[in-house]
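Re: Re: ligand-bound prediction request (bumping)

Still looking for help on this. To restate: I need the protein modeled with protoporphyrin IX containing FE bound, output as structure tokens. Inputs repeated here so nobody has to scroll up.
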Amino acid sequence: MSPRLFARLKTTLFLLCLVPLLSLVYGLLGDSLGANPIEALSRGLGDWTLRFLLITLLVTPLRRFTGLNWLPRLRRMLGLYTFFYALLHFMSYVWLDQFFDWAAIGKDIVKRPFITVGFASFLLLIPLAATSTNAMIKRLGGQRWRALHRAIYLIAGLAVLHYWWMVKKDITQPAIYAAVLALLLGLRVYWAVRRGGR
Ligand code: HEM
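Reply:
Sorry for the wait, this slipped through. Here it is.
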């Protein structure tokens, strides 16, 4: 793919990734998010954090299956969007749900397991976002950087657990996310075993 076409594709993807946020804000301002708009906003941001996380993990399998070797060059942006949505989701909780009551937030994190694992996955995302620059990759060295970024699977597992533990009755949605994650992880393990066997 020509550099110009790739740049255009990247810009388009960048703008597309903002659509979920814009549509949530639009819904909030237009009062069309339902009876509990704050909850709908918070949940929408949580949903999109998880979706971006899984889309980021999909890049490598998609490259292997399609042979589109430029796909990994979009991964950093998708990963940073995951962090961006996670930050907004966290901020919606801190601001709109808890009104910056840090004592109550601390208590919630300790006492409610679904918040504990959500918070853990958010905390673990921070070093990955902070080391996403070329300078940091160079500083850490490829091997150490890759080892650190393997934490993304743990983060995704915690994020699915966060959702699973949050829902009280119908677990269909978190189960679908869990199945997708298991498939993505399974593929990685399969490829690693095959590589080892050679
Ligand atoms: C990578 C990090 C995280 C991901 C992927 C994530 C994802 C999600 C998802 C998918 C939902 C359910 C949305 C739905 O019902 O459709 C959710 C709900 C929720 N999350 Fe997270 N979350 C993360 C981090 C956090 C953190 C750090 C907190 C707070 C400390 C948090 C607090 C909540 C709360 C309170 C809800 C329920 C929202 C409500 O009912 O108003 N999450 N999250």
